[in-house]
Amino acid sequence: MTPVIGGLAINLALGLAFVSIILHFFYLRNGDGRLFLSGQRAALAVSLLSILATLILAQLLITSNFDVDYVAHYTSLETPFIYKITALWAGQSGSLLFWLFTLSVYAVITILQNQRSQHKIMPWVMIVMTTVQLFFLILINYVSNPFIPTEADFVVANGLGLNPLLQNITMAFHPPMLYLGYVGFTIPFSFSIAAMAERDMNALWMRTVRQWLLFVWLMLSIGIILGGWWAYQELGWGGYWAWDPVENASFMPWLTGTALLHSIIIQEKKDMLKVWNMALIIITFTLCIFGTFLTRSGVMSSVHSFTASSLGPIFLGFVFLILVVSFLLLFNRKSFLQSEKRIESFTSRESGFLFNNVVFIVMCFAVFWGTIFPVISEAVRGTKITVGAPFFNQVNIPIGLVLLLLTGVGPLLVWRRTSNQSFIRNFTTPIVMGLVSALVLYIFNIRGYVLISFSLSAFVLTTIGFEFFRGIRSRMTSQKENPIIAFWRLIRKNRSRYGGYIVHIGIVLMFVGFTGHSFDSEKEFGLKKGDSEHLSGYSFTLYNVREEERPNHYAYIADMIVADAFGKSIVKLHPEKRIYFHRNPNPERRQPHSELDIYSTIKQDIYSIFNSIDLENEVAYLKIMINPLVNWVWYGGYLFVLGTLVALWPPRKEKS
């Protein structure tokens, strides 16, 4: 009975979505408040029914109701509880329903939050949000329904179980965070379309859009960082970013969203770049839908993507519909969005922000082109040309270094025009620190982009450090505060500015971690008990191989001692070779999986993978990787999130 209720909920939601859109359009024509109220209630009902359907599917997964095809495909009796929940977004139809669920939660918050404000544009906001919901409801009802019963002539006693790669605790958080970011861009997009439709861009609209943008951008950022962490911890290749098409699908809207967050500051302060910002909002939301298309169409080969399906053309059609309608509206409202103000100087902060935006867009285009080129080549020439990590690195490393430079240059510029005296005073110390760092690195035989990256990092950290120093010194002088109190109140009184600086420090630390990849080393070997191998000044001794049966897999565990060049034991590592579904009588259903073990320090990671075992000759085949500075990526990620939270946190009115 429960699956029937779930199916009925999404059917009703589909019908009410049509009703809500029609009622709001009639309200816009005749202004009858009853139509607005009815349309609003219908929109709330659409969201609540979608949330109900999602909760029902989650309950079916938790209780292992194998009468539902989706449950039988993505869970089993042996699947741990937490992974039964994560199975909600593991498959095609479940992930689409979760997309709709996330948008529905956002829609309920948006409607309730703006019941007494934004009266002029809220009908359009609800029309846009409900239209996006309608699109996903059509897919869920007619193309990929998660409540379809299992087609079998017998009682299904057990399911196929969840992919071992997804049985990682990070996967309980990574996809939801990505969805909160991806889906969340619907809200600022809806407000922006509504503002253009009504020619109403008041200060309240600006604050609403900026707060939503900052929040969903933070969620997307956390999702991307968690995705890198999952890849590093689970996939066993020693890296966290492979320029995979689905990784790129999340990165592209992050790039345009970051550009938007920077340029919207200019719109707030100078009432400029309104057309540019509207275009960025449209492109960012479209890239979110396009990324969903990449994940679900099957046109791309990726460890993250779903199997090939009929969803591709439908998604692509929706992408073109969004672009055509949105840009036609933007073109029609261009005169309304024009600003009389212009950038006055190349050395102004406005110019720095705009150049920063251009670089972000160039990088986004490079990633977009590299991602879709294999599909275009296959369509045109009949052969798929693979575009791998070397292409993306070759193109994007120089662009990334330019962005790193601009991260340090921006705070040194002033609004309207930077005078020659200010330019010399602000830039001298950071440039000297960057050049001194470059000289030291050169002496230690560091060359190429590694030298540039570390030198620019020193330049940017000096820049931001001086910004904090000047602010603290000013408060110590004017308010007679001690340094700690001055630092705390400096941030509290200007959360947006100094939160942004903390984010920039996090980005610098991440660049340091990225650059450390150039010093990686690795070695593969087979060991018997008591044998040792050496790599980068460390020795690795296998002292035991043991076996352990667990509820949902069978594990071979390699116990190793890691010692330094002086023979001193540092740590014991225990990588595993797991066999999932080991009780299945069909050998083809058994899934081997390497569960790695990592010893992490601020300097480097020792990364161990148990590749395979030869039981007859008692040989364990292992792979060891030494990855310098990887933890700097994660430390930078923590600061990145902290800084965004500081900027997002609402200011509190207080006496000076």
Short overview:
By secondary structure, the protein is α+β, with helices and mostly antiparallel strands. Helix content is 62%, strand content 11%.
Task: Give your account of this protein's structure.
There is one protein chain. The protein is an alpha+beta fold. The chain has four domains: 161 residues; 191 residues, no CATH class; 140 residues, no CATH class; 113 residues, no CATH class. The protein has 20 helices and ten strands. Strands 2, 3, 4, 5, 6 and 7 form a six-stranded antiparallel sheet that branches. A four-stranded antiparallel sheet has the order 1-10-9-8, with no helix packed on it. The radius of gyration is 27 Å and the shape is globular. About 1% of the residues have low confidence.
Report, as a whole number of angstroms, the end-to-end distance. 62 Å
Indicate the mean pLDDT: 89
Q: Helices and strands, in N-to-C order?
A: HHHHHHHHHHHHHHHHHHHEEEEEEEEEEH
Number-wise, the strands total 10
- The shape is globular
Instruction: Count up the domains.
Output: 4
Describe the largest sheet. 6 strands, antiparallel
Fraction of residues in helix: 55-70%
Which regions are unreliable across 5 or more consecutive residues at pLDDT < 50? 303-308
Strand content of the residues, in percent? 5-15%
Radius of gyration (Å): 27 Å
Helix count, per DSSP? 20
Tell me the structural class. alpha+beta
